[in-house]
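Task 17 of the worksheet. Students: predict the tertiary structure of the chain below and write it out as C-alpha cells. Keep your answer in the requested format; marks are given for formatting as well as content.
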Amino acid sequence: MEANFLQFPFFALDTHDLKSHDGVTCTATRFIGSERHEVTVRISRNSDCSFPGPLSRRIHFALLSKMQQEQGFPPFRNPIKWSWYDLAKRLGLKSCSGRSIQQMKEAIEATHGALIRTRYSLQHSEQQTNPLRKQSSAWHLYERYVFIDDTLPDGQIADTNHLWLSDWYLANLNSQYCGPINYELWQFLNNESRIASRLYEYLTWNFSKRIPVFRISYQKLAQFLPVKPLLHLSQIRQQLEPALVCLQRQQLIESFNWERGSTNQVMLAITPAVRLIAAESTSASMKVAAGSAKQPPESASTSNHDSAHQLIAEFYRRWSATPDTRPGPKELALAQEVIKQYGSVQIERLLPLVVKLLKQTFPDAQNFGATRSYWARAEQEQKKSSERRQLEQENRRQQQTSETVRKLERTKKLELRRRWAELSETGQKRIDGLAYDAANDFVRRKMDAGQFDDHLVELARLQALERDGTDRAA
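Model answer:
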C-alpha cells in the first residue's frame, strides 16, 4: 500500500452523507531537515460524485491486489484490467447483478473525482527532501478509467474494464514507497471493523519507525482515521476499543492503554505485537534516501529475502514464542523456496498446520529447516479439510432445501384441507369425481369401496382440488 495512503485518510469509513460530505482535512507537524512545518492535507469530492466511501476503498485495495498478483514485483504498469465478475468475487459480493455493477462504477467514479490538496505532506518518490507543495492544481489518485464497451484512448472499443493510476502514485509504488499490507488480513479486519482495517494501515506506517510504543492524542487519531471525534473517554472507548481488540486477536498489537496528556487530553498508547513487528522487516521499502539521486526500486530478490525473514520469524513465534531468532543461510534458502512454491497467501494458511504437524510428529525439532517435508503434507491436509467442509456445507444446504420443501408441502397440504372443509357437499362430490377420473385403478378401487379416509385417496382429492383451483385461476 502506497505510504501516503497509509498515513492520510483518502476514504470515508462509513456511508453516512457521502453525497453531501465535502471532504476531510488533516493537520500535523513534520520536520523537513531541521525545519518544522505544518502539514495539511485536504481530500475533497467532485461535486458530480459522492465522496469515496467504504466501497471505493474496498475496490481500490482489490485492484491493487489484482495488479500485484498479475504483475508480480515492481515496476508495475498501467492500466489495471478487470472484469466485473472478477471484481465482485474479490469484494466477496454474493452476485454480480446490474445494480452491483452500477454501484461499483459509481464507487470508482467517486475515487477518480476526488482531489488531493496538500502542503508539506504528500511525499513523492522523486522528491524526498522536498515533498509536493500546494499548487494551483490538485492531484488525483486515478488518471482515467474506461469501462467495458467504452472507447479506449487509442480509439478501440474496450473488451474489459481499464484503470490508469496517476503517475505520482504509480511512481511511489514502483519506488517501494509503500507499506507491507497483507490484503487477505486487511479484508478480514475490514469485514470485522472498518476502523480496525484503517488502524492496521495507520499503525503499519507508524511502527515502520521502529518505536516500541506509539502514543497519539485521540483528537489527532480521529482525524487520521477518520472518525467522528467524541468528548468523553467512555464514548471514545466504545468507539475504538472493539477495533483495537480485533487487532489484538490478530496479534498485530500487544496492548493498548488510555492515558492523559500534559493538557489532560485523551492519549492512546499502543505496543506492537509480533505480527506487526515481523512486517517491519519490509519497512525499509517505505524509506527513501535523501539527496537528489533517485533510489532504484528494490529488487524482487530483496523483497523475497524480507518475506523469508518474516516467514521464519513467524514460524519461531508459533513454535517457541521466540521470533527474534536469527535465521541461517540454509533456513533463508528454504524459506525462499517455500515462498516461491506456495506464495505468501497460501503460506499464511499452511504455516499453522505445518507447526501443528511438526509438534505431533517431531516435537524435538530445533529449527525452521525441519519443516521441509511438512509443507506438502500440510497442503494435502488443507485440501482434505477444505473438501470435507465443502461436503458438509453441501449436505447442510441439501438438508435445508429438503426441510424447506417439506415445510412448504405441509403448509400447502394444510391449506388444501382447509379449502376442502369449506366446500359444500356438492363441491366435494365434484372434486371426488375429478380425483376419480385422474386416479389409477388401485385408488379407484379404494374409492369404490368407500375408503375415503385412506391417505392415497386423500392425496388424490387434494391434488384434484389444487388442479381445480389452478384451472379456475387460469
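Marker's comment: Strands lie at 23-32, 35-44, 80-82, 115-119, 142-146, 161-165, 214-217, 253-260, 266-272. Residues 1-178 form one domain.
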